[in-house]
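Same chain as my last thread, 332 residues:
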Amino acid sequence: MRECWLGLFFVQAGLSPGVFLLNYKRLAGKPLIFKSFSSLKVHEFDALYAKIEEAYPAFMQKRLYREDRKRRMGAGHPFKHRLNDRLLMLLMYYRLYVTSTLLSFLFDLGQTNVLKNIRMLEPLVSEVLPLPKKLHRKVRRLRTIDEVEAVFPGFKAFLDATEQEIPRPKSKRKRKTHYSGKKKRHTVKTQITVNENGLIVHKTKHARGSKHDYAVFKWCHPSLPDDVRVGFDRGYVGVQKDYPEISSEVPFKRQSPGRGKRGVKAKELTSEQKTFNQKLSKERIVVEHTISRLKKFRVMTHTFRNRLKHYDTMTNIVCGLTNFRITGTMAI
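reply #2:
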């Protein structure tokens, strides 16, 4: 299905996959198609590529260095494609999440070499992007009020979790631990924290789909300045009691009358409580918008086909690309 609609893009772009190979030079001449394929505008891609090109020699030196090396570095068969074409291939894989078979055809590359090229570049891309873990390290070093307000405008942060489907595990134990009663699928769950502008300042490692959002928060939550108020949804009821040191805002929830009182409705919220809930909901929409930005990358939308050991690396890069698009810079 994805291969069919991808063919429509070639028609619109005036490209024929049977004659032309896909590369940066050809695709950059079609800005709208370039953004649809890579999620970045041409000037954003150029800015990212400039940073990667600058860090590439040191990265390759570190990657290839061994004390017992017998051949000089650089020996062996060179890469078939230029660095910018390999970066474009990585971004297309993340954005469209097509099969490696299709990418091998588009880039005239052996199918087994597609993921090898992508896996080789991932650590370098992670090195230059504003990943959430880098921002969180910066947040933990904030000291003055001005520094805190620069990262958290309005002294506000918002937290939520998102799920992604995975193939049905072969292991009976994993089938039980990764089954989400909410999604009725086998999933993994990730929790993110954003500021008022949607910038992702913290992201957890993936958790089992059966784990409740609040359980994920207890397992791993961000360390934020005391002046920052964190907005939660109703799934985090109890955080104010369990974590009084965290300045938090949780929506009011109607209290159930309890067991043995069938037919008795829960007490309605007061007008002040409803007003508070509406205000918090309008503020929290920013974290929903950020999750929507992440889901633009189909590697975080479709069933995750890769091994779960690569999940955190790939989703970190998606968060870094989203942060880069929000801030317009890779500086931390």
